[in-house]
Write a structure and sequence with these properties.
2 domains; 55% helix
């Protein structure tokens, strides 16, 4: 009973640290995000005079939705793309088949429905999923495979940076190694330490490494250092 109380105590501590990490990341995102679309620039870094890059958030029947309008020339024909989420494959497929960017030949209006789409998913999502899967299942392998499978459509359509997404998944996969992990008990027997002591050392170590690694990946992503 005493051991269970200690496990519950450390679980709450680790959960609090995880929540604090999420808040720090969200603060970084808020500070470094202008909320504006990236403009079209010429070779000298000046905004193209007849280009358009804007978005507008709105509520339709109570569901958050976003319309993004982008094009190098506003005089180009308007192309409305209606889709339901980040797994939509048309854009990368079109580029691969033709070598042309739709925004070069059309004024593209993206309608990202129900709060999904290109602008709604950050690099923090794969980290959170991977972190939670490892903590709940106790298996890093399960965490890596499951998170990668979930995030794959968002990477293939260009919503997320492939390398940084992989790094975020890897960072989060350390999760919290505790009593539901076979490695935890293997480590305990090999080093002949008590469960309580291992929770204070190994479990805390894994969450510190995971959170610090995740923070570095988020910094690289949101500060556009990669």
């Amino acid at each position: 009973m005493k051991i269970l109380k200690k496990i519950g105590k450390w679980f709450l501590v680790l959960l609090g640290a995880f929540i604090a990490f999420i808040l720090v990341v969200l603060l970084i995102i808020r500070i470094n995000s202008s909320g504006n679309e990236e403009p079209f620039l010429d070779e000298k870094g000046n905004v193209l005079p007849n280009s358009i890059a804007m978005h507008e958030d709105m509520l339709i029947n109570g569901a958050p939705q976003r319309i993004t309008i982008r094009g190098k020339d506003k005089n180009n024909p308007v192309l409305l793309i209606v889709h339901g989420g980040p797994g939509y494959p048309f854009l990368p497929v079109f580029y691969k088949l033709t070598g042309a960017d739709l925004e070069d030949i059309f004024t593209v209006c993206y309608w990202d429905q129900r709060g999904s789409g290109l602008a709604a998913v950050g690099i923090i999502l794969p980290f959170i999923l991977s972190f939670l899967f490892t903590t709940v299942t106790g298996s890093i392998t399960v965490s890596l495979i499951t998170t990668a499978s979930i995030m794959a459509p968002m990477v293939t359509n260009g919503s997320l940076h492939p390398e940084l997404t992989a790094a975020a998944i890897g960072a989060g996969s350390l999760g919290v190694i505790h009593v539901n992990s076979s490695f935890f008990w293997l480590f305990k027997e090999v080093h002949e330490v008590s469960t309580a002591k291992l929770l204070k050392s190994l479990s805390v170590l894994t969450i510190v490494v995971a959170l610090s690694s995740g923070l570095m990946v988020c910094l690289l992503y949101y500060l556009k250092l990669v």
